[in-house]
Amino acid sequence: xxxxxxxxxxxxxxxxxxxxxxxxxxxxxxxxxxxxxxxxxxxxxxxxxxxxxxxxxxxxxxxxxxxxxxxxxxxxxxxxxxxxxxxxxxxxxxxxxxxxxxxxxxxxxxxxxxxxxxxxxxxxxxxxxxxxxxxxxxxxxxxxxxxxxxxxxxxxxxxxxxxxxxxxxxxxxxxxxxxxxxxxxxxxxxxxxxxxxxxxxxxxxxxxxxxxxxxxxxxxxxxxxxxxxxxxxxxxxxxxxxxxxxxxxxxxxxxxxxxxxxxxxxxxxxxxxxxxxxxxxxxxxxxxxxxxxxxxxxxxxxxxxxxxxxxxxxxxxxxxxxxxxxxxxxxxxxxxxxxxxxxxxxxxxxxxxxxxxxxxxxxxxxxxxxxxxxxxxxxxxxxxxxxxxxxxxxxxxxxxxxxxxxxxxxxxxxxxxxxxxxxxxxxxxxxxxxxxxxxxxxxxxxxxxxxxxxxxxxxxxxxxxxxxxxxxxxxxxxxxxxxxxx
Length: 486
Description:
Blueprint lengths: L1 E6 L5 H14 L2 E6 L6 H4 L8 E6 L10 H12 L6 E5 L14 E3 L4 H13 L22 H12 L4 E5 L7 H11 L6 E6 L5 H12 L7 H12 L4 E6 L15 E6 L11 E4 L14 H11 L6 E2 H8 L3 H13 L3 E5 L4 E4 L1 H6 L5 H16 L5 H5 L2 H12 L3 H17 L3 H17 L3 H15 L23
Parallel strand pairs: 1-2, 1-3, 3-4, 4-5, 6-9, 6-10, 7-8, 8-9
Antiparallel strand pairs: 11-13, 12-13
Helix pairs in contact: 1-4, 7-8, 9-10, 9-11, 10-13, 13-15, 13-16, 15-16, 16-17, 17-18
């Protein structure tokens, strides 16, 4: 673990201990404190040269009596050369000090302990080797305003310490997701990473698999136990885990280490840790909207309404709409301005259908749904050549299957078969099993007994349950009777 060296006078030891507790709990660092009576901070700072960073606490008792180069020369030369480790300064009480200290990493206790501690914590987090690309980079919501009290409660519960908070309102379009999104955007610099899981109607197995994927691990065993292990694993680092639109069947473990957990839910009561804070929010002012009048905007919006509403790649909607990328960008800007769609993830270029937009959508979308299914099938069928690209569309597989299960049956079967092969490739068998169940149930409704039998055979291996037919016996190891990726 990284070490931050704090040096101060004995008089300022109390302030230093407050800072140390905040950094160790909120910045994933260990603090070494030198509050000895011997020497000033202009001398004692050299004790931290082997640390990741040094913080000088400035006060009349801690600094040399003269603001001269002779007393401050070594530390000033170090700062001027941008040498390692970096040196920061906190002005606890007014005193004389070289103004050069103010150029970088300079904090003032008089600005309020809470805000100052947050600023120091943000600096300390930059000492870590952060991921080159964040798992989730919240986009700015141009229409968001208000909710300042709720935002401050989230800062206190999730930034100032490792905690858990539940944003609750039973109504749709009440602003739960936008509040969590805006908090994540504003507080992003206080976490090593943000893991955003759109739960919605996803099963616990799918939620756990999505979280595991963002952590770069596999999810195995009982879903409840696996979910608890994943939360514990996330807690090894200072991260923010957001579970958006969580259903009451999923329980949040009591332990989450250094991680902070933010949950939005329509359901009360929710299964939560006793220390988690419930934040009940009111409804947003009513905002009505209608289908766009611009033909290009209308085509893009109709394409968006058949994608996964909790988050989809913009390029997918553009392909479905069949419009030029330049026209699509301009149309997307207009749709955002009219609140028909919200920007979601700047790192991946994802969008999210607003609740207002979903309510305005009509049901005459057969051509868009067929186009969606054809494109998703093409992406799924190419998973062997580009598995990481195909993985971006996992959330689109089930909607695509549903669009065609009652119509183009061979296409619907092909979507599930290729999607299952992709999920098996990444070790996400629990999610793959859910796709097989959907295909099996649809096959039985259509009396497609051969397809139903194939799915049941695969499920018997995955779930370890007896197979109902007598002409096959269980297989061992990782052998499958079907090569769904062929």
